[in-house]
Write a structure and sequence with these properties.
The complex is a heterodimer. Chain A contains 8 helices and 8 strands, in the order E-H-E-H-E-H-E-H-E-E-H-H-E-H-E-H. Chain A is α/β, with parallel strands linked by helices. Chain A has a single domain, classed as P-loop containing nucleotide triphosphate hydrolases (Rossmann fold, 3-Layer(aba) Sandwich), CATH 3.40.50.300. In chain A, strands 4-3-5-2-6-7-8 form a 7-stranded parallel beta sheet, with helices on both faces. In chain A, helix 3 links the parallel strand 3 and strand 4. The longest helix of chain A has 16 residues. Chain B is of the alpha+beta class. Chain B has 2 helices and 6 strands. In chain B, strand 3 and strand 4 form a beta hairpin. In chain B, helix 1 crosses helix 2. The longest helix of chain B is centred in the N-terminal third of the chain and has 18 residues. Classes of the chains: A alpha/beta, B alpha+beta. Chains A and B meet through strand 1, helix 1, helix 6 and helix 7 of A and helix 1, strand 1 and strand 6 of B. Strand 1 of chain A pairs antiparallel with strand 6 of chain B, so a sheet runs across the interface.
Chain lengths: ~230, ~110
């Protein structure tokens, strides 16, 4: 047996978020956006809930009043970027995560480098469609939007509580389908309110346009409060 | 399935702190992970072991303490942890208010060799 040397073993208290580096990068993004007067909204939902539709309907509604840019997060492809540009976005950047199930703050940092922030009042960051992973990674947004659709079922808050707990606003899309999909509104509201007592819950239909005025009013209020 | 991203973030923190502490080796990392954080211990360990060879954290043990999701029942004036996806208070059946959503991801401490 040989002695390699005397080592001292110590336990060092840290007590910090495991994602501290991401949180720091997010804080830098938030500062950069705030300085430019751009309200950033992180849009999170499962695939198919209507993130891109909400963005395109908002662009159509506010085209003459508010300058909107978009960062599109997807595993692959640029189909959504083409859609939002066609709908009137001032500019849009596609982030392809190459398989990663969520956006991270450093990806948004790189996307911001490609945008002239002086051209926007509002920046939508469309996260990768997923109700779990995006909740952990702050991006530098000023507001977190949780989008859910009636077709997904009223049980989403109890199955995926975090995204409802951290949201600043909850948008319930496809309200025109509510009767067809046996969506229990009372159960949904009770579950959401157990997790998040204050965030507005806005019922909309991106297809019919119902409820979109309340949503754009909320968005403009947030921009004004920045 | 985001354990690989979490493991990469964990390694980055371990390397940063080891450097700051002039540690030659990270022997263990004590973590607090919420029960509802959607982190599977096995996947986290597997990912961490995949990333750490040749680093200061190679061979480090991951010690995980789990914290539950907690609600406060205003009617019973007490906290409870929901069973599965049932948010109701086990005593009175009322749906309480979340106190801890169980999504914590914290590095509590590091065991290092200096």
């Amino acid at each position: 047996m040989s002695t390699v040397g005397v080592q001292s073993v110590k336990i060092i208290n840290i007590v910090e978020s495991l994602l501290a580096s991401n949180d720091q990068a997010a804080a830098r993004n938030r500062q950069r956006l705030g300085k430019a007067g751009v309200l950033a909204v992180n849009i999170m939902s499962s695939p198919g809930a209507g993130k891109t539709s909400l963005i395109t309907r908002t662009l159509e509604a506010l085209r003459d009043r508010t300058r909107i840019g978009v960062i599109e997060g997807d595993i692959a492809g640029s189909i959504d970027t083409e859609k939002v540009m066609a709908a009137g976005a001032r500019d849009a950047v596609q982030i392809n995560t190459g398989g990663n199930c969520h956006l991270e703050a450093n990806m948004v940092d790189r996307a911001l480098d490609e945008l002239d922030l002086s051209r926007f009042d509002v920046l939508f960051v469309e996260n990768v469609g997923n109700l779990v992973c995006p909740t952990h990674w702050a991006l530098g947004e000023h507001r977190k939007l949780c989008l859910v659709s009636t077709a997904e079922g009223h049980d989403k808050p109890i199955k995926y509580p975090q995204i409802f707990a951290i949201a600043d606003v909850i948008v319930l899309n496809k309200i025109d389908l509510i009767e067809l999909v046996d969506f229990e509104r009372a159960f949904f509201y009770e579950s959401v309110r157990a997790l998040n007592p204050h965030a507005p819950i806005l019922e909309v239909s991106c297809r019919s346009g119902a409820g979109l005025d309340a949503w754009t009013d909320w968005l403009l209020d947030q921009r004004a409060a920045l | 399935m985001h354990e690989l991203s979490v493991a990469a973030a964990l390694l980055e923190r371990a390397e940063t702190h080891a450097d700051r502490l002039r540690a030659s080796k990270v022997l263990a990392i004590n973590l607090v992970i919420g029960e509802r954080a959607c982190i599977a211990d096995d996947s986290l360990r597997f990912s961490f072991e995949l990333l750490t060879p040749g680093t200061v954290a190679e061979g480090a043990r991951l010690v995980v303490r789990r914290t539950p999701m907690r609600f406060r029942c205003p009617r019973c004036d007490r906290d409870y942890s929901p069973v599965g996806a049932d948010f109701r208070c086990p005593a009175c059946g009322n749906v309480g208010q979340v106190v801890d959503d169980g999504s914590e991801l914290t590095i509590e401490s590091l065991e290092v060799a200096q």
